[in-house]
Design a protein that fits this description.
five-stranded mixed beta sheet, 7 strands, two-stranded antiparallel sheet, 8 helices, alpha+beta
């Protein structure tokens, strides 16, 4: 489902009026149109199911015979909280999986994280959705997703705690069952962030 830009333009104009602004003044005249175009881009992920995203980004290659972890870290994304439509920013995603017969193209992992971020949601849901899509795209049940991010619903309003960071983990398959594997991936993330 595509974003209805006409409705967004209409409602943004109404919001501008509701907060006491003049939507016809020079600086705001084109704002409803700009916001409508921006929403089409930043909420693109709403238009796709997790299964469709897995199908879009499932380019795989033969896996090496030894089965060891693949880890892609420092994937930068942003998203919007479904409670306040507030920006979730400085989000850093790490995705690890243990390949079975196939390995996923590395850029596809970043594309999956980016597309999942383009929805109204919770950070916990981002991790869960990325893990689900990775399972489908790689045909491996062994997936870990670790996300660190800031939430403007905490830093810019309410408590206004500018230093707060939220960290979530999603462990599936071997990562969920094997504490040593969990520790290994977390240790790898910690050690590489200090280099």
């Amino acid at each position: 489902m595509a974003v209805d830009q006409a409705k967004i333009r209409e409602h943004i104009r109404g919001i501008l009026e509701a907060i006491g602004e003049d939507p016809d003044r020079e600086g705001l005249r084109e704002t409803p149109d700009r916001v409508a175009r921006m929403y089409s881009e930043i909420f693109e992920g709403i238009g796709y199911t997790n299964d469709e995203i897995a199908e879009m980004f499932n380019k795989t290659f033969d896996a090496p015979t030894e089965r060891d972890m693949v880890l892609v870290k420092d994937i930068e994304i942003f998203s919007y909280c479904e409670h306040h439509m507030a920006l979730m920013y400085d989000m850093n995603v790490a995705v690890a999986y243990i390949p079975r017969d196939r390995v996923l193209g590395l850029s596809k992992i970043a594309r999956i994280a980016d597309m999942v971020g383009k929805r109204l949601q919770l950070q916990e849901k981002i991790g869960s959705d990325i893990a689900y899509i990775m399972e489908k795209a790689t045909l491996s049940p062994d997936v870990a997703v670790i996300i660190k991010g800031k939430h403007s619903c905490m830093t810019a309003r309410g408590i206004k705690n500018n230093t707060s960071v939220t960290m979530t983990t999603t462990f599936r398959g071997a990562f969920k069952e094997d504490e040593h594997l969990q520790e290994r991936v977390l240790r790898l993330l910690k050690n590489t962030s200090e280099e």
